[in-house]
Amino acid sequence: MTDLLSKFDPLIAEHAGLLSAGIRDPFGIVMDKVLSPTEAIIKGQHTILLGTYNYMGMTFDPDVVAAGQAAIRDYGAGTTGSRVLNGTYQTHKECEEALKDFYGMSHAMVFSTGYQANLGMVSTLAGKGDFIILDADSHASIYDGCKMSNADIVRFRHNDAADLEKRLKRLPPEAGKLVVLEGVYSMLGDIAPLPELVAIAKAHGAMLLVDEAHGMGFFGPNGRGVYEEQGVADDVDFVVGTFSKSVGTVGGFCVSNHPKFEILRLVCRPYTFTASLPPAVVASAATSIRKLMTAHDKRARLWEATRRLHGGLKARGFKLATETPESAIVSVLMPDQETTALMWSTLIELGVYVNMSRPPATPAGVFLLRCSICALHSDAQIDTVLGKFEQAAQMANLALHEPA
Amino acid sequence: MTDRAGVYARIIELIEPLNAKKVALTEATTFAGDMEMDSLTVMDLVASMEDEWDILIPLNMLPDLETIGQVADAVHGLVTKKG
């Protein structure tokens, strides 16, 4: 018998090597208690959470929690069914109504996760003979959607409008084309130059899908995302998003004004062939989405806290992935796997949780310590984090640069 | 250089800087197995070949292209088809 898991031996060895240096497992964190959107107890230690994508701090919002409690009481713990059979409750329709209102669009479809929303939309929109043109740094869910479709897959250089145009020009003019973009790219925290990319895509007759997973809640006058902020809403055919970031729970969605959109419920396999979200989740999501529509103060606060962290790290000589804070993700560039792991481990011992990211999840083979900021992070918490970063850099022998 | 030999020679030149393991490059050399290239590097290589010959190599073709020889055949075929 061939052991099917032996193909993972190199990874098993690498992971073991990492841990043998005595550091904590970056991929094995357990939160014993979650105290708030910004604090948890990890291994008995009070820890500041700076890697949760909980941008708007809605996880403990009293209205959001109350909506979930009421729904679990009134509708039970789960639906035990597909959206197209017995798994659509009043709560699911209300959640889709909230999305339609939030985005000002005529259709909304709620999936069980954000991953499935991308998987489903990308694989269903483009079929045999069609082309999917995606940014090289696209999220795994987009790549997997491409794999699941029978379309031809074309990749263009990250955020490079000229490269996108060059590749679109090589495609048969009459073929169906779907260009897939993200508002915020979550590894480096950089945003897309959507007006240029969208104009080129439209000029070549492509339909456009924009993933706003990391932009929803705090970009644009209504918090719809980078596409709203950059003024390209009229040219975007589909917006995909998630409930597991700013909304503060779990789930995914797609919104659109396409007149034939509703048929997708019957043909999109990751929507049809899985159980729907529990009533409590969609009720919490609907309440959160409606609150996010007018969360202007929180948005302002999120940007303020982000600038404080970005500026503070830069002033202390850390190398950051973006020159200025472009989103609520601040990524610290690290030299190699060993230093990254040691630095990450030191930070967690000091009571700061960030994400450790490494290839192939990261583009261009870079190692990152990735911070995502929450509107509820206080200035005092950010300052504590900055001090711990400096301390950890010393302990991990990370060379800091003279600030420019 | 759009004949098979020319395409192969140019592909070798494009691979050389990415050949971190410095393995000998032949028709039968595999990208994942012999060169231990990760998927991102392979996709970047594909982009450079697309630009070199102004062709389209859809990513979904990649699972069938394991060796340098197979890639050379595919690229040569695409270049010929383009005319």
Short description:
The complex is a heterodimer of chains A (404) and B (83). With 404 residues, chain A is of the alpha/beta class.
Question: Can you describe this structure?
Answer:
The complex is a heterodimer of chains A (404) and B (83). Chain A is of the alpha/beta class and 404 residues long. Chain A has helices at residues 9-20, 62-75, 90-103, 114-125, 140-148, 161-169, 194-203, 226-229, 264-267, 269-272, 279-292, 296-315, 337-349, 379-395, and strands at residues 33-36, 39-42, 45-49, 107-111, 131-135, 152-156, 177-182, 184-185, 190-191, 207-211, 238-242, 252-256, 329-334, 352-353, 355-357, 367-372. Chain A is 39% helix and 17% strand. In chain A, β10, α8 (226-229) and β11 (238-242) form a beta-alpha-beta unit. The N and C termini of chain A lie far apart (60 Å). The relative contact order of chain A is 0.16. The mean pLDDT of chain B is 92. The two termini of chain B are 13 Å apart. Chain B is 51% helix and 0% strand.
Tally of alpha and pi helices of chain B: 3
Number of domains of chain B: 1
Question: What is the C-level CATH assignment of the largest domain in chain A?
Answer: Alpha Beta
Distance between the termini of chain B: 13 Å
Tally of strands of chain A: 16
- Write down the overall mean pLDDT of chain B: 92
CATH topology descriptor of chain B:
Non-ribosomal Peptide Synthetase Peptidyl Carrier Protein, Chain A
Low-confidence runs of chain B? none
- Beta-sheet strand percentage of chain B? under 5%
What average pLDDT do the residues of chain A reach?
Answer: 96
Q: Could you tell me the strand content of chain A as a percent range?
A: 15-25%
Find the count of extended strands of chain B (DSSP E, 2+ residues): 0
Spatial shape of chain A: globular
What is the oligomeric state here?
Answer: heterodimer
Quickly count the helices of chain A: 14
